[in-house]
Amino acid sequence: MVTMKDVARAAGVSQAAVSYAYNRPEKLSAAQRQAIMEIAAQLGYAGPNAVGASLRSGRSGAIGVMLMDTLEYAFTDPSTRCLLEGIVQTRRFDDLALTLLPLPHRGVPAAVGEPRSGDQAALRGLVDGVIVHCLPDDHSALLTLQSRGIPMIIIDAPHLPGVPLVGIADREAAREQVEHLLGLGHRRFGIIAERLLPDGFHGLVDARRRARCAERVVRERIAGYQEACEAAGLDFEQVPVVEAGGFDLAAGVPAAHDLLTGTEVTAVVATSDTMAIAVLEAARDRGLRVPEDLSVVGFDDAPEAAPRGLTTIRQPMVHKGRIAAELLFGLLRGDPKPDDVYLPTELVRRRTSGAPRVTR
Predict the structure, then answer these.
(1) 170-315: same fold as 62-167+317-343?
(2) How many CB atoms lie within 10 A of CB 116?
C-alpha cells in the first residue's frame, strides 16, 4: 500500500508538505500542491487515513443535529426542513459530515438489545458539536453533552444556563395570535398544542398538566394565550386546550376533532402550522366553513401555510438554522461563547381568520 512517506520521497518533499497538500493547502503554493497531488495520483495514493487523522486531532469531522422525534420527522416536518436548509446554507460545514440524531423517545437508557439513540451516538464521540432543536427541559442527553464539554447551540428549547440559544419571543408572539382574534370580535377560543410532556398522552388537558409542561416552546405559547385571554377579561380555565401528543397531522387531526366536539368555539389558535392545518382538515370533515364558522390561526409560516391561506405567526425558520450553524462554527473555531439570539416575528393575515358569526 502506498503511504504518505512514499509520496514525499517521490515528490522530493517532506511528509509534512504532503499532509499540508491535503489538509492545509494554504501552507503551500498552488504549484507545490499541484505537483504533490500529481505524484500522489500517479502512485495511487488515496490521501491521509481519515480515522487516524481524527484520532490524532481529537475531532470526528462531523457535527450533529439533535431532533426531538424520529428521523422521518426531519424530512416531513416543514419547520424542521427549513431549519436544516438554513444550517446547510451557511456552507460552514461543507467539508464535514452532518449527522442527524433523532430522539424519538424520552432520554432514558436503552434496554439490552435495543438500538442506541441519537444522544448516545453523539456522546460516543461521533460528532464534534451539536445543534439541538426543541428537546424537553430535562432530557438526559443535554446534561451529558454539557458534562462532556461538547460544543452545543440550542434552537428554541430548552433554555439552559451557559448554553447559547437561538429563538424567538414565543410568549409575545402567542399573545399576538389571540389579540388578532380578539380584535375581530372572538370570545370563545380553543387551543391545540403538539405535546406538553413526552409521555404519549393526548386529549384535553387541565391546569395541572399545563403546569408540568416540559416543552419550553409550547409552555411559553400557552402562557401567552392565557395572558391575552385574561387581559381581555376571559376565564382561561374555560378555554379548552387539547394536546395532540405528536407533531404531525396523524396526531393533529384526531386532536382537532376532539377540540371541536361538544364545544362552541368560534376560533382556534394552534402552537404550530401543522396543528392549524389539522384543524382546517377537521373543520372540513365536519362541514364547518373557515372563517365563516371557525377562524384558525397557526404559528411558524411554514411553506404549507400560504397555499392554505393560513393566518399565522411568521418566524424566520431558515435564518434560525443559519445563525445556529454560524454560532456552532465559531465555538468549534475557539471563539468566545456567544450571547443568546432572539429573532423577530410578525403576524401574517390571510383568509382563515375573520369576524365571528353573530349566531352559531
Answers:
(1) yes
(2) 11
Q: What is the CATH number of domain 170-315?
A: 3.40.50.2300
Alpha carbons within 13 angstroms on the beta-carbon side of residue 237 total: 3
Q: What is the per-residue pLDDT across 20-59, written as a single tens digit (0 to 9) for each?
A: 887 777 788 988 988 998 898 888 886 765 434 443 455 6
Rounded distance, CA 330 to CA 319, Å?
17
Residue 203: closest CA among 246, 266, 174: 246
pLDDT tens digits for range 126-155: 788 999 999 988 888 887 788 778 899 999
Q: Structural domain boundaries of the chain?
A: 4-48, 62-167+317-343, 170-315
Which CATH code is given to the segment(s) 4-48? Answer: 1.10.260.40
> Is 223 within 8 Å of 254 (Cβ atoms)?
no
Q: How far apart are CA 165 and CA 132, in angstroms?
A: 9
Measured between alpha carbons, how far is 339 from 262 in angstroms, rounded to an integer?
47
Cα(321)–Cα(83) distance, rounded to whole angstroms? 4
pLDDT score, position 52: 44
Q: CA distances (Å), 17 to each of 6, 46, 58, 150, 253, in order?
A: 13, 16, 21, 31, 62
pLDDT tens string 96-127: 888 888 887 544 333 333 434 444 555 555 78
Phi, psi (deg, nearest 5) at residue 190: -130, 155
- Amino acid at site 57: S
Place of cell 400560504: 306
pLDDT, one tens digit per residue, over 36-46 is 988 988 888 86
Place of cell 362552541: 264
Asked if CATH classification 3.40.50.2300 holds for the domain at 62-167+317-343, the reply, yes or no, is: yes
CB 217 within 8 A of CB 271: yes
Given this model, what pLDDT does residue 180 score?
Answer: 98
Cα–Cα distances (Å) from 360 to 263, 288, 297, 357, in that order, read 11, 11, 19, 7
